[in-house]
Write the C-alpha cells for this entry.
Amino acid sequence: MSPLQNEKRRPPVVVVTGPTASGKSALALELAVRFDGEIVNADSMQVFRFMDIGTAKPSLSERSRVPHHLFDVVNPDQPYSAGRYAQDARAAATAIHGRGRLVILVGGTGLYIRAFLDGLIETGDARPGLRARLEAEHERAVAEGDPARLHRRLTKLDADAADEIHPRDTRRTIRALEILEQSGQPASRMREAHGFRDRPFRVLHLCVDPGRERLHDRIDARAQAMIDAGLLREVRDLRERGYGPELKPMQAIGYRHIQPVVDGADTLANALEAMKKDTRQFARRQRTWIRAVPEVQTFDPDDRDGVFSATERFLKSDDAERSREAVDDTRATGAR
C-alpha cells in the first residue's frame, strides 16, 4: 500500500484552533451539528470542574446540542498531564469514530493538540516530585532576581533545546530539563529520534483568527462579559471549596487577577484591566505557535462558508478514497 493510501486509511479529525476569544467553540459547535460530529476538548483549563466562567467553557445548553468530551474531568487540586490528556482524548476519538461520527478537536492548548495528533516522547519512569522540585527552584531563582537560571542550565546541558526556547518560557524550559533528568538524554535528541510520527489520524487543521485589532476588541469584550457573568463569585466559590491561590489552575488568567479582589487587596476595575492585558499577551503567543503549524488553514471567524467548504472537501476526499479502496479490495478478492 502506498503512503498516500496509508494516509487516507486513517480516520479523519477536524481540529479547530486559534487564539483565545477568536470564536473557536462556536465554530466547532456549528461544524459538529452540520457534519454529524462530536466535540473533544483541547483546552488545558476546561478539564477542571467548577471553573466555567473564567475558562469560557461551553454552556450546558451548548453541550446538550452535541456530545462534548473531556470537559470537567478533574478537580482543580488534581493533576492532569498532557500524557493523560493524550490517552483520554484518543480513547474518546476511537469511541466517536466507532459510532461513525466525526471527531472535532477544539481548543487553544498547543501541547494538548500536539499530544493528541502526534503522540508524546517516552522519557522513562516518572520521578515523583521532579517537576515540583524544578518549579520550586525556579521560584527561588525569581525571588533572588535571576529568573533565567534554569534556562542557563539548559543551555549548558542541551544547547539545541535551549536555542528553541525563550528564556522566559519557564514551562518549556522545565520540561526540557525534566526530559533530560528522566531519560538521561537531551530533549533535542529525544525529539529528533521520536520525530512525532505517532500519527493515527488524517487531519484538517483549521484556525480562526479575526486579526490583531479585532481580536483585541473581542478579548476586551469577553473579559468584561466574564466579570458581568460572575467571575468574582466563581473565584469566591472556588476558595470556599478549599481551592487556594497556590494551585496552578487558580493561577491562570482571570483567576489570578481576581484573587486579590477576593482578598480585598485590589479593585475589580484594576483586575479587569490587568486581565485584558495579559490575555492579549497570551493570544500573541498562541498566534506565534499556530503560524508554525504545518498545513493549517486560517479563516476569519465570520467566514463560515469558507470553513464549511474546506471541511466538505476534506471529508469528500476521505469518502472517495475509501470507495476506491473498497473497489480495489473487491477486485483483489475476485482475482483470488
The longest strand covers residues 202-208. Residues 204 and 310 are 8 Å apart (CA to CA). The chain has two domains: 3-119+196-322, 130-194. The two ends are 18 Å apart (CA to CA).
